[in-house]
Design goal:
With about 500 residues, the protein is of the alpha/beta class. The protein has 15 helices and 25 strands. Helix 1 crosses helix 2, helix 1 crosses helix 8 (about 210-220) and helix 2 (about 30-45) crosses helix 3. The longest helix has 17 residues, at about 30-45.
């Protein structure tokens, strides 16, 4: 399993750098093993047992990584929490998970102490002072470190990641040791991870993308990860241009900022072995812009909290614009009619369903929602609409819940958004459906204009006329609303449920 592979790297290459934060000291695989052992001793000294939930709300830092690896090593369930969560959301996650231990930044103690006092399952909060500077020295040197037996049951829950909660309260997805191992092994084969790879890690680590796909991927390969505490486009571009790195993983928002920073200048990043994009659809202009500006073809892939990665454009072969690629090794995918769940013919749009050893175990304490997440024959209902091409490539068409039905006709928001993004005055956009007495729903476009001055912004008529040139009449927005920003999650993905709440009242 993943932990066994990591343990082998720590034994066989103890002097190789495993992790290093920008501006910090390198941490070798041998030092990583020692720090994780110290942290595991600390957790056991607090009475943490297998199956106990250990919640960590820290910035991206070494203690976060040590607590993560130590918790899963001793059989506890690791619960990463976004440092930006307000108190009300944090209370929900802690109460719902029944976390016994919370690891948090000492600067938040005044707001966390009153919150945790009233949680029945909570037993202790450990505060870390200056976590981004403390490395592994925040904990005393425990000379009696034990060589802990690694978890051997692949069905044992290793992590709990909460879904985004766009349609209901967030659900805790239980990710097992077997799930983690299957997904990382699949990506290792598909993306050709190598021991000499150097990953520039600029993603947050409280999310499956940054923690499992990126960090686990590097450690599973015995590679090196240089970590940015937070993404900064100037820093990232300067580092990528040094030629030191071979792997970079980002989301479209990050890639957009790098592309805009280049401002038409040519940067040769062709030495990068792998640059991926995920968590949201990669706009076509970024796909082609990267080719022209950076001499790189981004590799788009598709995953979700409950599964890790499912589909990917190939490392060797066509990386198709607009497509999320082919099923990864060990992953099965199909497109079905969402009402009958009968498989559809290639080219027909339906719900994408997934099956494989990487698919999560269940939703924490929610058996009804777990049952509803799977078809009668065991396929995961992703809620994503898409189609399969005859040659096996998959293309997504948006979330099923985001589908707009206007006058009995289906409108897939990404199709309209792609057209809107071709307008030179549109910087960003999102398309939603709002209730309409006559049509059932009307197509509504929220647009961030390129123009800095309102007087220079396009008007609604101009935008609609542009869309009519490329879209059927029923797909053209009936309302265009200009906004300063779009609600987005930590990875920059637009939260359409919040946008509908704002605009459809």
């Amino acid at each position: 399993m993943f932990l066994d592979t990591l343990a082998n790297h720590c034994r066989n290459q103890p002097d190789k750098t495993a992790l290093q934060f920008i501006g910090g000291q390198p941490v070798t695989y041998g030092e990583l093993a020692a720090a994780v052992n110290r942290t595991a001793d600390y957790l056991l000294s607090l009475g943490i047992q297998p199956g106990d939930r250990v919640a960590v709300q820290l910035p991206k830092c070494l203690p976060f990584i040590y607590f993560h690896l130590a918790a899963v090593r001793i059989g506890a369930i690791f619960l990463p929490l976004n440092p930006a969560y307000p108190t009300a959301e944090l209370r929900y996650f802690l109460a719902d998970s029944g976390a016994r231990l919370l690891i948090a930044d000492a600067k938040d103690q005044s707001k966390l102490d009153p919150l945790t006092d009233n949680l029945p399952d909570h037993q202790k909060t450990t505060y870390i002072f200056q976590p981004q500077d403390s490395g592994g020295n925040w904990i005393e040197d425990r000379s009696a470190q034990r060589d802990y037996p690694l978890p051997s049951d692949p069905d044992q829950t290793a992590m709990m990641l909460y879904t985004s909660g766009t349609t209901s309260r967030p659900k805790g997805a239980e990710i097992t040791h077997g799930n983690l191992t299957a997904n990382i092994a699949s990506l290792h084969e598909a993306w050709g991870w190598r021991r000499d790879d150097v990953l520039l890690h600029a993603l947050p680590v409280f999310h499956v993308h940054g923690l499992v796909v990126a960090l686990h991927g590097a450690l599973h390969a015995g590679a090196t990860a240089l970590l940015c505490p937070a993404f900064d486009a100037r820093t990232a571009l300067d580092l990528l241009c040094t030629g030191r790195f071979s792997v970079f993983m980002g989301v479209p928002t990050m890639h957009r900022r790098l592309y805009q920073l280049a401002a038409g200048q040519r940067y040769d990043l062709s030495g990068m072995r792998l640059m991926t994009s995920g968590s949201d659809r990669l706009p076509d202009d970024l796909f082609y812009g990267y080719q022209e500006t950076f001499n790189v073809t981004l590799l788009e892939r598709y995953g979700m909290t409950e599964t890790g990665m499912n589909l990917s454009n190939p490392l060797q072969g066509e990386r198709r614009v607009g497509a999320v690629g082919l099923p990864l090794p060990g992953v099965a995918a199909r497109v079905v009619d969402p009402d009958t769940e009968q498989p559809l013919a290639d080219g027909d749009i339906g719900e994408v369903q997934i099956k494989g050893a990487h698919v999560f175990k269940r939703y924490w304490r929610q058996p009804e929602k777990t049952a509803a997440a799977f078809s009668a024959d065991g396929w995961l209902r992703t809620g994503d609409m898409g189609l399969r091409e005859p040659d096996g490539y998959y293309t997504l068409k948006g979330r099923a819940k985001d589908l707009i039905i206007t006058g009995g006709l289906n409108v897939y928001p990404p199709e309209v958004e792609l057209v809107l993004m071709e307008h030179p005055s549109v910087a960003a956009c999102a398309v939603i459906g709002c209730p309409d007495d006559e049509w059932g729903e009307q197509v509504v476009a929220a647009i961030i204009p390129q123009a800095a001055e309102p007087a220079d912004a396009p008007d609604e008529g101009e935008i609609c006329a542009f869309c009519r040139q490329q879209l059927a009449a029923y797909k053209v927005p009936r309302r265009v609303i200009f906004v300063d920003k779009l609600p987005a999650n930590a990875l920059g993905k637009v939260q359409k449920a919040k946008l509908r709440a704002q605009l459809c009242g």
